[in-house]
Amino acid sequence: MTETAQRVREAEPADAAALGRLHVRAWQAAYRGIMPDDFLDGLDPVERGNMWARALGTARPGSSRLVVCTEPGDDPVGFAIVGPVRDSEASGSGLGELYAINLDP
Asked: Of 16, 25, 100, 102, which is least surrounded by CB within 10 A?
């Protein structure tokens, strides 16, 4: 087995289209048999990429952060969204929360 160097970095607006494609592939692989096929088959990577472009263009300090795991060539192979804990009882505790994680199947 060979190892491939990977790195984790903050997502950038230039990642939006690749994130859209990755997001759709991940959902189609993970949720097939759980969600209706017509819903999963109707997911549009371009539309999802546009959603990521808007989200990356409006990021605010102190809000959630999107990080990507990349391989050589800087192509995203996964992403995670992390941010402040949303539980009101833990607010101000310094704890964080993993909101989402998606990997390219």
From this structure: 100
Which residues contact residue 18 at a Cβ distance below 8 angstroms, ignoring those fewer than 6 apart?
49, 75, 76
What is the DSSP code (8-state) at residue 54?
H
Q: Is 65 helix (H, G, I), strand (E, B) or coil?
A: strand
Of how many residues is the chain composed?
A: 105
Q: Where are the alpha helices (DSSP H) in 1-105?
A: 16-31, 37-41, 45-57
Burial status of residue 27 (CB atoms within 10 A of its CB: 0-12, 13-18, 19 or more): middle
What is the domain partition of the chain in residue ranges? Answer: 7-103
- Asked whether 99 and 82 are in contact (CB, 8 A), the reply is yes
Sequential pLDDT tens for the chain (105 residues) = 566 677 888 888 999 999 999 999 999 999 999 999 999 999 999 999 999 999 888 866 666 787 887 776 778 889 998 888 877 777 777 788 888 999 999
pTM of the model: 0.82
Could you tell me which CATH class the domain 7-103 is placed in? alpha beta
